[in-house]
Specification:
Rossmann fold, 10 helices, about 15% strand, binds NADP nicotinamide-adenine-dinucleotide phosphate
Length: about 260
């Protein structure tokens, strides 16, 4: 599929400085899309922008922003108002692997803001003009963790549950506007996420490479509204429908508590 023709010539990725965001940026640059790159680490954004401009001959705009800051959405809106953002990857997010009682209020607020409030408000910011143009696409990063309780990553799992339901609902709302929305739910993927979360070891079932998650996202955008990446993760999340919630919560706790 010619993504540039279908969605428009500009894409925007939040959390482009690392992990899945960088991989989405590389894949979209290969499609010939000009890119707006958003994250806090300015130097990384500029390095990536230089690489993508050189390799793919595209234009880039780096917006170093902490999305949890009050003015971030306004700034993002103002800096991109003259660009037709046709493909938006709602990706920036983080989690903490820590007992709930040991988490600081400020961390809980920041996580809920970055993982829930910001994706919802940015969806509105970029979907509204797409709906007017009657074309566009959005990818929302949820997680396999969205499908089950995730003690002791309790708040993180809950924020991803929000993203899953938000994205799947928006997929339906946007259908009549010819705008595709896809919710992507990766399992354990090899990015900086786990270091940031404070995890010491991997989970059962292995680690996926972020390029695979991205490849499958673009294969399914416009065809499905949601997918769980990896057979193992798909099977686990599917199984949770048939097992009592208390058993799912207990097994999840056993799997995650010593990470
Ligand atoms: N890796 C996994 O196993 C996994 C599994 C399921 C779902 N996910 C989801 O995938 C998405 C991407 O995660 P990842 O694995 O690629 O993690 P990552 O490698 O840690 O990347 C996270 C990105 O988010 C950006 N970010 C963090 N806080 C930010 C803030 N306050 N303002 C702006 N940008 C911010 C980071 O950039 P700066 O630090 O430069 O700001 C970075 O570019 C997340 O939503 C995560 O929940 C990941």
């Amino acid at each position: 599929m010619d993504f540039k023709e279908k969605y428009g010539s500009w894409g925007l990725i939040t959390g482009a400085s690392a992990g899945l965001g960088t991989c989405y940026a590389r894949a979209m640059a290969e499609m010939g899309l000009n890119l707006v790159l958003v994250a806090r680490r300015e130097e990384r954004l500029h390095q990536l922008a230089e690489e993508l401009e050189k390799t793919n001959g595209i234009k880039t705009l780096c917006l170093p922003l902490d999305l949890t800051e009050e003015a971030a959405i306004e700034i993002l809106g103002a800096k991109t108002s003259s660009l037709e953002i046709g493909l938006f990857v709602n990706n920036a997010g983080f989690g903490y692997l820590n007992s709930f009682l040991e988490q600081k209020d400020s961390n809980i607020s920041k996580m809920i803001r970055l993982n829930c409030e910001i994706p919802a408000r940015l969806s509105r910011l970029f979907l509204a003009p797409m709906a007017e143009r009657k074309r566009g696409g959005m990818i929302v990063l949820a997680s396999a963790a969205a499908y089950l309780p995730t003690p002791p990553m309790s708040v993180y799992g809950a924020t991803k549950g929000f993203d899953l339901l938000l994205g799947e609902s928006l997929a339906m709302e946007m259908r009549s506007f010819n705008v595709d929305v896809l919710v992507v739910s990766p399992g354990h993927t090899d990015t900086e996420f786990h270091g940031v979360a404070g995890a010491q070891s991997a989970v059962v079932g292995g680690t996926a490479c972020p390029e695979d998650v991205v490849k499958q996202s673009f294969r399914l955008l416009g065809k499905r509204i949601s997918f769980v990446h990896g057979v193992h993760n798909f099977f686990l999340t599917w199984l949770t429908r048939f097992v009592p919630r208390s058993v799912v919560a207990r097994l999840s706790f056993l799997a995650l508590k010593n990470r």
